[in-house]
């Protein structure tokens, strides 16, 4: 099944997104500071990992996170 966020997966050949690049990679849907705040509260993407001093998120976890936050717009 194709996800509505398939283009994020298709445009990320590394398999992960660094927090500092998440705004660009998600088309502005997520912001690095917001993700840092959510991570601090324990409400961010739980599969995050660190490479050196950079926080990274697996691409599939980012897409799952976005899909979990989708809300239908009211008419």
Explain how this protein is built:
This protein has 75 residues and is an alpha+beta fold. The chain has one domain (6-68). Helices cover 39% and strands 15% of the residues. It is built from 4 helices and 3 strands; from the N terminus they run αβααββα. It has helices spanning 6-10, 22-25, 32-41, 59-68; strands spanning 16-18, 49-51, 54-58. A 3-stranded antiparallel sheet has the order 1-3-2. β2 (49-51) and β3 form a beta hairpin.
SSE arrangement:
Elements: H1 6-10, E1 16-18, H2 22-25, H3 32-41, E2 49-51, E3 54-58, H4 59-68
Antiparallel strand pairs: 1-3, 2-3
Keywords:
75 residues, alpha+beta, three-stranded antiparallel beta sheet, 15% strand
Summarize the structure.
By secondary structure, the protein is α+β, with helices and mostly antiparallel strands. The chain contains four helices and three strands; from the N terminus they run αβααββα.
Which overall shape is indicated by the principal axes computed on the Cα atoms?
Answer: globular
Q: What is the domain total for the residues?
A: 1
What helical percentage do the residues reach? 25-40%
The radius of gyration over CA amounts to 12 Å
Count the E strands: 3
Mean pLDDT: 90
| First-residue to last-residue Cα separation | 27 Å
For the largest sheet, list the strands in their spatial order: 1-3-2
Spans of at least 5 consecutive residues with low confidence:
none
Helix/strand structural class:
alpha+beta
Q: How many helices in DSSP terms?
A: 4
Major β-sheet profile = 3 strands, antiparallel
Classify the beta-strand content into a percent band.
Answer: 5-15%
């Amino acid at each position: 099944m194709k996800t509505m966020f398939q283009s994020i997966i298709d445009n990320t050949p590394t398999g992960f997104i660094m927090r500092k690049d998440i705004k660009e990679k998600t088309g502005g849907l997520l912001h690095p500071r917001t993700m840092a705040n959510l991570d601090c509260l324990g409400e961010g993407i739980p599969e995050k990992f660190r490479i050196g001093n950079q926080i990274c998120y697996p691409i599939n976890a980012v897409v799952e996170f976005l899909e979990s936050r989708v809300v239908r717009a009211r008419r």
